[in-house]
Design goal:
Strand content: 5-15%
Low-confidence stretches: none
CATH superfamily of the largest domain: Winged helix-like DNA-binding domain superfamily/Winged helix DNA-binding domain
Radius of gyration: 18 Å
Strand order of the largest sheet: 1-2
Amino acid sequence: MTVTMKGGRRPPGTLEAEVMGVLWARAEPMTATEVQAAIGGDLAYNTVQTIMIRLRDKGLVARRRAGRGHLYWPVEDAATAAASQMRAALAGRPDRQAVLQQFAASLEETDAVALRDLLDAARRRRRS
């Protein structure tokens, strides 16, 4: 699903997230043309190419030459990237506990149980 704001523009970061989603779903290197086709709509090739270059500059994707173009793939899997974003959201915040409390309070019960289990397992590993 493509989200757009008034005037037909996407919210900031949405297109990068869409591109990363396509790359993670494919699980093999893709050209900008393949990503453009997977996203669909009337998105220009140059726009996709620009996003791919920005993602490479940010260290989120790698690339290699393929003919006259490049193949791109994610540097991290989706779960690792999401965990990195979560750590970044907490980094250097004076209110880390408040942020974690709000996050924990917003979890679905099944996610809260899973998180408790994972924290217990991590605690056991540290002790051994």
